[in-house]
Every structure is written in structure tokens, then in C-alpha cells.
Design brief:
Elements (H helix, E strand, L loop, with lengths): L1 E3 L4 H5 L7 H14 L4 E8 L5 E8 L9 H4 L34 E10 L2 E10 L5 E4 L3 E2 L7 E7 L11 H18 L6 E4 L2 E2 L12 E7 L2 E9 L9 E5 L5 E6 L11 E6 L24 H40 L10 H20 L9 H15 L7 H8 L4 H42 L6 H9 L14 E2 L1 H14 L11 H9 L1 E10 L5 E10 L8 H16 L8 E9 L4 H4 L13 E5 L2 E7 H19 L4 H7 L8 H13 L4
Parallel strand pairs: 2-9, 13-15, 18-19, 19-21
Antiparallel strand pairs: 1-6, 2-3, 3-8, 4-5, 4-8, 5-6, 5-7, 9-10, 11-12, 12-15, 13-14, 16-17, 17-18, 20-21
Helix pairs in contact: 5-6, 6-7, 6-9, 9-17, 10-17
Length: 673
């Protein structure tokens, strides 16, 4: 049978049909989704010459009801459907989608199945490129083969495209740019799109981390608001699309985030039965306050809805910018190297952490501050921020930023809160690392002064000190063990006790003596008075708490020094050596050596020559030095050390080897920088 169409060949040719086979395929995919399909498959077959024989698009939708055929196919430029595609929202579909096959095929067959009074009926429709004035169709029959609805459209006599044009590599991105948002919004319905049996994944085009759907009640109405954040830049403006309960689009509005300098590419889809009463408007009409809303109540509802949408986008943008801020700060530090340099000590680390926090928040709130800055400008801005944060003028950072770029009232309030928050976080971090350090000191005091009978240097003192070089000066807090030097000095120990070589076993007496000579070795890079970098090495000689610092102990340290001087491996002029002997007590003969170096202003110094220094210290010297170095901060923070002291000075604590072991484990588990 034939059905005449109200169309002439010429009118089809001049109607603006696409000439792009990809857009044509999309038209037919949309037909399937608009027929409530949950699964659509695009495939093709090859002829004997490996050219394309047919292209097939099949769906499991409602099919085309035979009784409404004249309405759906009978009139060109008149369609019951309303396209949902972002790309075609800018123009009406107007029923010409079915003629899109003309871009790549001579004719098409629709084999469709629909439900009629609990029975599946089927029939076939044919359209020809040569005769667009009529369509051919069969009479619908009850199906003996199928028990589900759906439509399969097959295109014949393919031209202008080859099998490569229909590969996943060639078509995937194009199809996802058209359908990714629809697949995402309907993922709960298990909507799928297949190309050559390969399922397309919307996650390749949509940032699932920041995309989200929320339900927002406003008065008696309920709105489902879906924000989609695209992985790549989209050509369209960032818009809100309004759908009624039947998924018919009723209006479009631009979001207020189109002027952002960041690539937060997004679209918003809002669905509610609230829009059922709207008349369909021009798709470019962004003035939703006129011609649409009859009552004042509706106007209030739409105004609040817009506010909710803006807050929703804004909150997601903040999260997005926070993630981007981490990337940008990493580039400032490691790639562009515009971030200020900080000293390699705990205070430097705290200052760096504070500047990172504030910079991150500035970038999150208003990234335009850093947008397209030259490296020298960015470096200057960061240096100035660091200067203000380190002074009593911290709060003036807000004034400076406000001068650079005019902040909104809300941004200004956020920024003020951030400065207070980061200041508090900085103080908390400072207190935390000081607490950890005092905890270590109190443990050491207990071991050295109260549990000395059960403690030794190898299993207790050494384990604590080798993780906490900062006890001998803040500059050593990043020192790490130098295993090469350690092994060399261990070998020298064998020589000290008369062994012929490093592998020869020591006598029991020598082995017992050697256990006393525990040392730690470390190195760091420093700058000398001429601006050149040299390596500063530290060797710490530790004794058991009950062993005093005598002339014999100093003689061993001097032997270490002489061995290093004579060893080509360690005697470069670009190395500086510090030897520190630490005991609970120092005998009077050693104390007399302090006088010769008093004028150097270095407490504990008993020998200095060229690049070598030897220090003799009590543990009380070490602990007092720490207190003095931190006194300014302790006074400012009003820190109460007595609380920590009471933790470990408990008379009920058993004095035993097990107690010393547990204290050592506690001290080595503390993270004190």
C-alpha cells in the first residue's frame, strides 16, 4: 500500500536536511529514545567487496502504531516528537528526521512492532530517496515471531561512507557528544547505546565526580535538578533546560557562570510537573518571567528555583576549583617555580603549609586572580601574600585581594572566614608538632634519669635519636643517616680494638667495649659565608645513661675525627664535620676544655680546627637548648608543658626493662618532624 505525503522532492531538498551521515544517524537514534527505547544498537553489514551493504539501527521502544501512521509519517515538517538533543535544541525537529537517510542511502525500511490490545503487531514502512512524495507500507499483522515492541530501520544502497566511517574510533566521540547527557540522566533506567556491539560510556565525556542530580522541593512543587559537568569544552553556552513531566522541553535559560575564566563546562536539566502548564516557548527565549508565568506565586517559585540552581552550581564549582587548585599550586611549586622558597625546618614547613592553604582558597573563590598572570607577576603576588601571612598584618590580605579584583560581598565574607580558619589551623599544627617534640623529650628524660639502670644506648637511646636529629639544633631536623660513613666508622671500630681487618671477630672484651661506642651519622647541604654550598656532616656519639663523658670518651671521638681526616673518601674541602658526644654527666677534666673556645659563642664546643668541631654535651644541655630555641613560640601560644610532664612522671609506673622498651616505642612512633 502507498500513502501520499504532503511534500515535493524539491521541498525536501531545500528543507535544511543534514548532509552529514553522522548527524543523520543521530536523528534515527533520537527517534528510538523518543519512542521510550532503553537500548539502541547501530550496526552494519559488508558486501563481497568489503564495502557497506546495509546500515541498521534497532531499538526496543514502543514502535510505530499503525493507526497513527498518517500522523507520524503522513506530513513532512510536522512531527509529534520533540527532540531532546542538545545540538538540535536550537531548531525545531519538524518531522524531517525520517528523511535524514538521504545523506547516505537511497532508501530505508522500518520494520516496527507495537502493542495493540495486548497483542504484538508488526509491519514494514519504506521510504525512497527517488520518490519522496509517498511512502509504502504493509498492513499490520499479529506477530508470530516477536513478543516485544521495537523498531528496526535498515538503510540500503549506501554511498559516500565506508566501513571505517562506522567504526568505534570514527563515531564514538561524535555519538557521545550528542547522547552522553541523555545516557547520564537516564542511567537509573539502564538506557544504553551500542555501536557494533560496543557499549558507549558517557563517562568519557562527563565528569561523574562533579555531576550530580538532586531533588529540591519548593513550596508545593518538586524539581529534579541535574548538573552535568563536561570533561571537554562544549560549543554552547552554559544553559539550564526546563522539562515537564513528559520530558518535553518548555524553556531554556543561561546560567550566570558563562563568564568564568575556568573550564567548568556544564549544563543543567530541570524536570518538574510544574512546567506541564507552560506553553512551549522559543528555545532562545531566556526571559522566563514574561509570557509564561500567570501568577505571582509561580514567579516566586521560578525565582527561588533559579537561586537554588545557582547555589547548586556554585557549590560544585567550589569543589571543582579546589581540585584544580591542587594542580595549580603543584605547578607553581614544581613547574613554574613561582612559589616562595622556605627553610628546611619545621617552621618553614608550617609557613609553606599556611601559604598553600590560603593560595588554594583564593584560587577556589576567585581563580581570576591568578588567571593569565606572567610568571614574574605570579611570583611577586605569592611573595607578597607570604610576607603578609607571616606578619601581624595577616588580615590585610583581604584588603589587598579586594584591590586586585573586586570581590562580591559573599566572596569577601568567605575570604575573611578562610583567613581566620587558616590562622587557627596554622596554630593547631604548630602546637601539635611542639607537643610531639616535648613528648619525645619527656620520654628521654624518664629513660636517662629515672630508668637508667634498665636502659642502653643501642636499643633505646639510639633508636630515639636517629629519628630526631632536631634535638641538636633545628637545622638538623631533616638529616638522614649516612650508611656509607656509618659502615666506614664501624670498620674503624675494629681497628680501634686491635683487629687485623673488619671481618675478624672481636674478643669478648673488645665486643663489650664496642657496644658502648654507638654513634649516629648524617649529612645535609648548607651554604657557607661565600655563598657556596657545602656538605655538613654530623656524628653523634651516644653513651648509656650511666656512662660519664670522660677523657676516654673524647679520645674515641677524636680518633673518629682523625680517621675521617685521613680517609680520602671523606676529607673533601667541601665537607664540614661536627662531632657531638652526649652523656648524662661530664667529668671535670673535660669541662676545663670549654674555656678555650668560650669566645666562639658555641655552647659545648671543646675543639675547632678548619672544617672540624667537637662538642661535649650533657643531656640537660640538649634539653635546655631545645627549650630556649622554642621559648618565643611557647610564650606566644601559652603552652603548658606540665601536662605532658605529668604523663610520664607517674610514681606508679614500674621501673623495668619492659617500661623502657615501651617508652622507646612510644617516642619512635611520634611524628615530630
Amino acid at each position: 500500500m502507498k500513502m501520499p505525503l504532503s511534500v515535493k522532492n524539491q521541498s525536501v531538498e531545500t528543507s535544511g536536511l543534514t548532509k552529514d551521515y553522522r548527524e543523520a544517524i543521530c536523528e534515527f537514534v533520537w527517534n528510538g529514545y523518543e519512542a521510550n527505547a532503553t537500548e539502541i544498537r547501530i550496526s552494519h553489514s559488508l558486501n563481497n567487496l568489503y564495502g557497506i551493504d546495509t546500515i541498521t539501527i534497532s531499538d526496543n521502544g514502543d514502535g510505530i502504531n499503525y493507526e497513527t501512521l498518517s500522523d507520524t509519517f503522513g506530513a513532512f515538517l510536522a512531527s509529534q516528537k520533540n527532540s531532546l538533543s542538545l545540538k538540535v535544541k536550537s531548531k525545531a525537529n519538524k518531522g524531517k528526521g525520517r528523511f535524514s537517510f538521504c545523506a547516505f542511502s537511497s532508501h530505508a525500511d522500518w520494520h516496527t512492532r507495537y502493542l495493540d490490545n495486548d497483542k504484538i503487531k508488526e509491519y514494514t514502512i519504506t521510504l525512497s530517496n527517488e520518490n519522496k512524495e509517498s511512502l509504502e507500507y504493509e498492513e499490520a499483522q499479529v506477530s508470530d515471531t516477536y513478543n516485544t515492541t521495537g523498531t528496526t530501520v535498515t538503510f540500503y544502497n549506501i554511498f559516500n561512507i565506508n566501513s571505517g566511517s562506522l567504526s568505534v574510533e570514527a563515531l564514538e566521540d561524535f555519538l557521545l557528544s550528542e547522547f552522553a547527557w541523555y545516557l547520564y540522566l537516564n542511567k537509573h533506567k539502564n538506557i544504553k547505546l551500542f555501536l557494533n556491539d560496543y557499549e558507549l560510556d558517557y563517562k568519557k565525556h562527563i565528569n561523574s565526580e562533579f555531576s550530580q542530580t538532586i531533588t529540591k522541593p519548593i513550596g508545593e512543587e518538586v524539581f529534579e535538578i541535574s548538573l552535568i559537568v563536561w570533561n571537554e569544552k562544549i560549543k554552547e553556552k552554559f544553559r539550564s533546560y526546563y522539562f515537564d513531566s513528559q520530558n518535553t522541553i518548555k524553556g531554556i535559560d543561561t546560567t550566570s557562570f558563562n563568564r568564568n575564566t575556568v573550564d567548568f563546562n556544564h549544563s543543567v536539566f530541570i524536570q518538574s510537573k510544574f512546567f506541564d502548564k507552560w506553553e512551549k516557548v522559543s528555545l532562545f527565549d531566556t526571559n522566563l518571567q514574561t509570557g509564561l508565568l500567570e501568577t505571582e506565586e509561580d514567579q516566586k517559585t521560578i525565582k527561588q528555583l533559579k537561586t537554588e540552581v545557582q547555589h547548586f552550581i556554585g557549590n560544585k564549582l567550589n569543589l571543582y576549583m579546589s581540585s584544580k587548585a591542587d594542580e595549580e599550586i603543584d605547578k607553581m611549586i614544581n613547574t613554574r617555580q613561582t612559589f616562595p622558597k622556605f627553610t628546611n625546618d619545621d617552621y618553614g614547613e608550617l609557613r609553606k603549609k599556611d601559604l598553600v592553604r590560603v593560595t588554594k582558597e583564593i584560587y577556589r573563590i576567585e581563580p581570576r586572580i591568578f588567571y593569565k598572570l606572567k610568571d614574574v607577576q605570579e611570583k611577586s603576588l605569592l611573595a607578597f601574600l607570604n610576607l603578609l601571612l607571616s606578619s601581624e598584618e595577616r588580615e590585610n590580605v583581604l584588603t589587598v585581594i579586594d584591590e586586585i579584583i573586586q570581590l562580591t560581598t559573599e566572596q569577601r565574607a568567605q575570604f575573611a572566614d578562610i583567613l581566620k580558619k587558616t590562622k587557627l589551623e596554622n596554630i593547631i599544627d604548630t602546637i601539635a608538632f611542639i607537643e610531639n617534640r616535648y613528648r619525645i623529650i619527656e620520654v628521654l628524660k624518664q629513660i636517662i634519669y629515672d630508668l637508667d639502670k634498665f636502659a642502653n644506648e643501642r636499643n633505646h637511646i639510639q633508636k630515639i635519636i636517629e629519628q630526631n636529629y632536631w634535638l641538636f639544633g633545628e637545622q638538623y631536623h631533616l638529616v638522614s643517616a649516612d650508611k656509607t660513613m656509618h659502615r666506614a666508622l664501624e670498620q674503624y671500630n675494629y681497628l680501634l680494638y686491635g683487629a687485623k681487618d673488619a671481618t675478624e671477630p672481636l674478643s669478648k672484651e673488645a665486643e663489650a667495649d664496642r657496644r658502648i661506642d654507638i654513634f649516629l651519622c648524617g649529612a645535609r647541604k648548607v651554604e657557607n659565608s661565600f655563598g657556596n654550598f657545602i656538605e655538613e656532616n654530623i656524628v653523634v656519639e651516644l653513651k648509656a645513661p650511666r656512662v660519664p663523658l670522660s677523657k676516654d670518651v673524647l679520645r674515641q671521638v677524636e680518633d673518629y675525627m682523625d680517621f675521617i681526616r685521613s680517609n680520602p673518601q671523606f676529607n673533601s674541602q667541601q665537607r664540614r664535620w661536627k662531632f657531638i658526644a652526649v652523656c648524662k654527666e661530664i667529668d671535670d677534666k673535660v669541662k676545663t676544655q670549654y674555656n678555650a673556645f668560650k669566645d666562639k659563642g658555641k655552647p659545648g664546643l671543646i675543639y675547632q680546627s678548619d672544617l672540624y668541631e667537637i662538642y661535649a654535651l650533657t643531656w640537660d644541655d640538649v634539653f635546655t637548648g631545645f627549650n630556649l630555641r622554642h621559648s618565643f613560640m611557647l610564650d606566644k601560644l601559652n603552652y603548658d608543658r606540665s601536662i605532658l610532664m605529668d604523663e610520664y612522671k607517674n610514681d606508679s609506673v614500674e621501673k623495668s626493662r619492659e617500661t623502657v622498651d615501651s617508652f622507646t616505642k612510644l617516642a619512635t612512633s611520634c611524628n615530630a618532624g
